[in-house]
Amino acid sequence: MPNKKLDFKAGQYVVYPTQGVGKLLRIEEQSIGGQKIKMLVIDFERNHMTLRVPVERVEISGLRPLTSMKKMDEAIASAKGKAGAKRMIWARRAQQYEENINSGDPMKLAEVVRDLQRRSATDTMTFSARQLYLRALERMAQEFAVLHKMDLDAASEKIEDILGVPKEIDLNASDEDDEDDDVEEDSVS
Fold it and tell me: CA 120, 122, 123, 124 torsion: positive or negative?
């Protein structure tokens, strides 16, 4: 078998479509069935998983380097657009969203985020729509976080801020907190 030129280097972040962003730890050679096979060893810290991808299967697997800042900005701009037509039944749309998420393509992730994001604080989502939205947002945020050298939660918040997604209403907040403030003010006087 001819040796393929590797475009990947140890220590670089890569995207494996069905898992998200991982760090390429090393390139190692393993003997399997009497054949020596070069493997890329990728660590997905968030999933507590290590994946070995044979070099010959890199292209088929969809493994790719991180997208550029410009392409990430284009994806986020796309997610700001108007939601796509919803003429399909939910089961078919959900399947399409799942395929887009597992593609690892930032533009397809942006489509899912665009179509499923809440446009106002009163919008509600079904549980399955919310799960798909959160997975797509997390995948986008993983790349965004590495590109902008920030943690994942901050990257998710930043993307939602850029998109203008309304903040969640704190259902655990109570009026008691307000009453406590009034009591403290009275006792200080």
Answer: positive
Q: How far apart are CA 44 and CA 35, in angstroms?
A: 27
Tell me the three state secondary structure of residue 7.
coil
- Is CATH 2.40.10.170 what the domain over 13-65 is classified as, yes or no? yes
- Rounded-to-integer distance, Cα 151 and Cα 146, Å: 8
Q: Give the tens place of pLDDT for each residue, 19-31.
A: 999 999 999 998 8
| CA proximity to 27, closest of 11, 12, 16, 38 | 38
| Predicted TM-score (pTM) above 0.70 | yes
Position 11: which residue type?
G
Q: Quote the CA–CA distance of 151 and 144 in Å, as a whole number.
A: 9
CA distance 33 to 181: 71
The second-level CATH assignment, the architecture, of 69-163 is: Up-down Bundle (1.20)
Residues 118-141 have pLDDT tens digits of: 777 677 888 999 999 999 999 999
**DSSP alpha helices (H): ranges in 41-151?**
58-61, 69-79, 90-103, 106-116, 127-148
Of the candidates 125, 115, 132, 123, which has an alpha carbon nearest to the alpha carbon of residue 80? 115
* Residue 14 · residue 63 · CB < 8 Å: yes
Closest by alpha carbon to 110, among 120, 100, 123?
A: 100
- CA pair distance 182, 118, nearest whole angstrom: 35
